[in-house]
Inverse folding.
């Protein structure tokens, strides 16, 4: 007699439940997705004890008749897939037909549903996968499903459930994602009778984000949208003032389905580039629409992952869209009143945006010789003023950021001050990615105005007049709009970063021979790796060659390496190449950028360095001529502004 047997339905359903029903949040996800597929406009989720006590989901969708209610608990029974062709163009959230039978096999389920015919409804009770009763119910269109005693017959699964707070956190996260994907549906989520989330269902994504993240965060969101021949996207992303400690606040929604896509998330992060501090992540909700044939959502049992047919094209488009949106959203950081003291009734938590080019100021006659000697070192001959402007100045496009009507969220304070002044457009931080665009804009600026006029038009921050230093680290400056604090190290990092990026793009950069060649020793594995990548080192300006016995020597380096740190920079660049692993292809652009960031940090003014007044003037002048003077290459803010009004309010000059 053979030993292979066909499993009975109960056992196979319980095994399937192990894939589909991992925790209470999985139950909520599957059932709410069914409600969305049923065209519901109002969905209520009521949870007790983190979902282990009970889960009740009520919707006003089209409901089911009695025969469909019974078939819904059969395995692989679905109304969403008819033929094999449907698998290649999935337009619904649920399609496997495993959710209800899998849930019913490990819980006590009560389903009540009525279709649009107005006939009497149906109530079915299922326990452990077996139908206990089928009775009539009140004729209320829609469906109500109650899940009790989840995992009552699988004690091992129940034993390893996390705490109640952890489980409700997962449930809340799933509901938040679905609310972001479907702003036209009114969602309500309660836990033990306490309201956790409530959306209006008015179809506005910004209002959903205000309900999830708060009104003040919603005020700091930037709209992003665009389309190509194959893709269309829209959504909101947070300005650089709002960051979080992990990537979970980045929501990518593909055809109404939340997808965990590392390529898409990385594309968004590349769009932010050097605008975020290390280890910080933005709040983003991005809705993508595409032909269902271009995406495969049937690659994960919980349908949380997907494959895209034109993934590289999509990622490049998203990266460009994020960078473009951020260009118009950059501004000088302003301290929040709530971080220092309590906020009275009617006070605004955020100050209005600044007019960054105040009228009535003229540029002080700061000579570039001061900049060369004070900021870049006395022994270094740097470009002339005209050369610097040619490299670093980009003519303003004149695009202004208009306040969106959607930002007037209902919960905003009645006495809040509106952002009356429009911000000038700011070039994003990525010099390497935008070389072609930068060259075109620079040429246009030179053809339309003189160098001095281009400098005035290109300045992204107002004219600042230094008045002193704090602890030899922060420059104190002023103008008619108030007081400014400038991190001198971060400011010079930005200056050097753009200077080094410009140099790294040059094909024929001048090199400097070392009097004594620099020797680099490595392991056998590192030796094999470096032998394949000597050409990469040459592209970074290093003349390196194999010397035998796991040793390499560097005979020359670019003449513009930071003075006094040449050998350290050489070692860091070689380490970058070694850390690239066994990749067949290394991104030269990324490697050059890492080198520029590292060199700018090592060459910049350190803390506790006291500057003369002329040195501070020179530093601020060079900062004004950078393309993105708001953050250093590591994403930290460079300038913080205290408005005159805020200063007067702190000293009680105004009440």
């Amino acid at each position: 007699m053979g030993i292979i047997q066909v499993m009975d339905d109960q056992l196979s359903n319980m095994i399937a439940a192990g894939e589909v029903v991992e925790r209470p949040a999985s139950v909520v996800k599957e059932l709410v997705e069914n409600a969305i597929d049923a065209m519901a406009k109002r969905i209520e989720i009521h949870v007790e004890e983190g979902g282990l006590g009970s889960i009740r989901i009520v919707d006003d969708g089209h409901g089911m008749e009695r025969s469909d209610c019974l078939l819904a608990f059969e395995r692989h029974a679905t109304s969403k897939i008819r033929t094999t062709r449907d698998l290649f163009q999935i337009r619904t959230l649920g399609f496997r037909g495993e959710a209800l039978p899998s849930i019913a096999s490990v819980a006590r389920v009560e389903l009540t549903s009525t279709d649009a015919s107005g006939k009497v409804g149906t109530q079915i009770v299922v326990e452990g996968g077996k139908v206990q009763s089928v009775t009539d119910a009140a004729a209320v269109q829609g469906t109500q499903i109650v899940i009790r005693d989840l995992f009552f017959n699988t004690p091992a699964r129940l034993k390893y459930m996390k705490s109640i707070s952890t489980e409700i956190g997962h449930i809340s996260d799933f509901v938040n994602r679905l609310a972001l994907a479907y702003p036209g549906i009114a969602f309500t989520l309660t836990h033990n009778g306490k309201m956790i989330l409530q959306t209006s269902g008015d179809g506005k994504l910004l209002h959903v984000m205000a309900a999830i993240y708060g009104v003040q965060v919603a005020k700091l969101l930037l709209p992003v949208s665009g389309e190509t021949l194959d893709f269309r996207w829209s959504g909101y992303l947070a300005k650089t003032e709002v960051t979080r400690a992990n990537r979970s606040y980045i929501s990518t929604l593909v055809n109404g389905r939340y997808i965990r896509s590392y390529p898409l998330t990385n594309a968004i992060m590349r769009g932010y580039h050097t605008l975020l501090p290390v280890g910080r992540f933005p709040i983003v909700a991005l809705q993508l629409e595409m032909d269902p044939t271009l995406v495969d959502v049937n690659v994960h049992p919980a349908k949380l992952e997907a494959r895209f047919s034109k993934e590289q094209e999509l990622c490049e488009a998203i990266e460009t869209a994020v960078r473009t949106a951020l260009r118009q959203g950059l501004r000088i950081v302003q301290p929040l009143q709530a971080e220092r003291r309590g906020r009275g009734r009617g006070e605004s938590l955020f100050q209005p945006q600044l007019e960054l080019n105040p009228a009535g100021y003229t540029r002080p006659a700061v000579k570039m010789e001061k900049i060369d000697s004070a900021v870049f070192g006395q022994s270094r001959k740097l470009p002339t003023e005209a050369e610097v402007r040619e490299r670093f100045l980009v003519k303003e496009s004149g695009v202004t950021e208009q306040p969106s009507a959607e930002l007037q969220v209902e919960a905003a304070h009645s006495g809040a001050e509106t952002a009356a002044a429009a911000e000038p457009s700011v070039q994003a931080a990525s010099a390497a990615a935008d070389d072609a665009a930068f060259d075109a804009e620079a040429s246009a600026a030179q053809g339309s105005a003189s160098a001095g006029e281009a400098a005035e038009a290109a300045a992204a921050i107002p004219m600042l007049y230094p008045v002193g230093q704090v602890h030899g680290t922060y420059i104190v400056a002023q103008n008619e709009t108030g007081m400014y604090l400038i991190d001198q190290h971060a400011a010079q990092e930005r200056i050097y970063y753009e200077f080094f990026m410009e140099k790294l793009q040059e094909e024929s950069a001048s090199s400097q021979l070392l009097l004594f060649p620099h020797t680099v020793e490595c392991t056998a594995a590192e030796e094999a790796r470096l032998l394949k990548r000597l050409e990469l080192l040459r592209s970074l300006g290093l003349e390196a060659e194999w010397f035998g016995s796991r040793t390499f020597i560097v005979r020359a380096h670019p003449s513009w390496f930071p003075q006094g740190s040449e050998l350290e920079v050489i070692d860091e660049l070689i380490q970058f190449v070694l850390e690239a692993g066994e990749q067949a292809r290394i991104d030269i652009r990324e490697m050059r950028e890492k080198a520029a960031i590292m060199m700018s940090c090592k060459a910049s003014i350190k803390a506790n360095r006291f500057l003369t007044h002329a040195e501070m003037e020179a530093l601020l002048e060079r900062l004004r001529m950078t393309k993105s003077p708001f953050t250093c290459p590591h994403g930290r803010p460079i300038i913080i502004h205290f408005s005159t009004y805020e200063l007067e309010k702190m000293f009680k000059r105004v009440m």
